[in-house]
Description:
This protein is an all-alpha fold and 49 residues long.
Amino acid sequence: MQAKKEEPKVGFVPSAELLNGRLAMIGFVAALVTELVTGQGTLHFLGLM
Length: 49
């Protein structure tokens, strides 16, 4: 008996959404820490404003 091969999961699947949410939270915290440390907003720090 052969094991059934699963189709790769792509798109809006729960695991991808969890990863996306976690990365967004890390980015938000990094932006806050940058602002606290430098005293500038993220866009000013990156030289975009």
